[in-house]
Amino acid sequence: MRRSVSVDEDGKVRQAKRDPEGVRRDILSAAMEEFSLNGLSGGRIDEIAARTRTSKRMIYYYFGDKEGLYERVLEEAYAKVRGGESDLGLDALAPVAALTKLCRFTFDHHRANPAFIRMVMIENIHHGRHLLHSEAIRGLNRPAIEALESVLRRGQAEGVFRAGVEALELHWQISALSFFNVSNVATFSAIFGDSLFTADGQEQLSRHVAEMVLRYVLSPGHVDFIAQAAG
């Protein structure tokens, strides 16, 4: 935890005040783990307080109530994935390279962040009620579609991507392929074995998701771009 110590003139150790922003980050991190494992109704504020060595009173001071904390955790989860997308520098890449990089990032992010997937699944159980209340989340997600629209426009202007592909639908397709890989790992493995979920299997799936998306988007005569993207 973020607690520093100092020694006074009498040689007594004194605890310095904890950094408020550090406390907030610690609470959000613990709350992500708690809510992603147990849901909103099953998540316990007492457990979050214990993990962060703070108090329920302090948690409520920062976040209002349990639902306020849950909503803030959702915002942080979406901010992380959207922040990662914005760091990809897609505008500086050729359209095929940009779309490939976005597909690989989405697949690999979801794979590395199963708590995010569980939070999205839990929010769907709640019919998206907390997402609808969060203007911050809507603001975070709009740029994701705008960035994809920009990649598609550049690819279409160069004749590399076919006309008629909609950014929102393409975002859905990329998300669906990447989401299923995490959300259904337990049931899929139980039925078919776990060969797709080894390190090699996941790397192959990540490449093939990008290839599937490119095959859908590329204009006729530009399929050779897939091999270039893979290389």
UniProtKB/TrEMBL annotation:
Residues 21-81 form the HTH tetR-type domain. Keywords: DNA-binding. Residues 44-63 bind DNA. It comes from the Bacteria. Residues 1-20 are annotated as: Disordered. The keyword Iron-sulfur does not apply. The keyword DNA-binding applies. InterPro entries: Homeodomain-like_sf, HTH-type_TetR-like_transc_reg, HTH_TetR, NicS_C, Tet_transcr_reg_TetR-rel_C_sf. This is TetR family transcriptional regulator. It comes from Xaviernesmea rhizosphaerae. The lineage of its organism: Bacteria, Pseudomonadati, Pseudomonadota, Alphaproteobacteria, Hyphomicrobiales.
